[in-house]
Amino acid sequence: MSAPYRILNPAHGVTDAHHSDPPVAVTGVQARPSPRFSVAVYFAAAEMLALEGHFESARRAAERGMKLATPEPEEQALYAWLVYRCERPVTAGAGAITARVSALVWSQTEGALARDSSCALAHYFKSVLLQRSGQAHDARWHLRRGRELDSNQSVADRVLALLDDE
Length: 166
Prior knowledge:
Layout: E1 6-9, E2 13-16, H1 39-51, H2 55-68, H3 73-87, H4 103-115, H5 120-132, H6 136-149, H7 154-163
Antiparallel strand pairs: 1-2
Helix pairs in contact: 1-2, 1-3, 2-3, 3-4, 3-5, 4-5, 5-6
């Protein structure tokens, strides 16, 4: 297991993405928000942690970011995927993937698409979730829509990287 990602915040010292809360601020230091310490920073850390297989830590990092402000639709879609990966039981039998997808995962995915119907990441993740739930026709539609929106396949590459370990 590699070392956790660290995020530097001048007001709080160094925050370890594997732990739930940043250390208490030093007495006498005026805490002010840093533009580098934002929702986007937490989600970047969450994606890096997920790529290394640390899904629970990635989910917690995303949730900490969501406490700061409403995430962008792409970040919300990533959060839905992280929740799914944390909730998903170990594969059963001969590599079959369990089809249970929680209401939270669906609501976060739908929320991302409701806020931005052109979010390729949300379409790709929804396609995978639908496929695993046995809804192949709808899954194909979302996959096609994601590909239309992602002409250079950069988002598809990110999704494939997050699916790589399965």
